[in-house]
Input
Amino acid sequence: MRTTYYNPSRLEVDFAKAFRELTPQLEDKLSEGEQVISIKSNHDLDNPMVTFKLKDKEGDIHEVVVQIIQRPDQIVV
Output
């Protein structure tokens, strides 16, 4: 499949949605007492973004942003 549109590409959007759906598995990998308290997705950006708000075991809130970037296809001859 050759990508003709990258802003955002269908692959980027699908990957960002899948990443969000994996939140329960990601949360299982956090240290004890740490948890995801909210998720915000923006799939309309040039590079889709998923923002996680996390609470650590001391109760402090942190923000982690995952931005999906697809590089242009490499044409192999």
Notes: The chain has a mean pLDDT of 91. The chain has two helices and three strands.
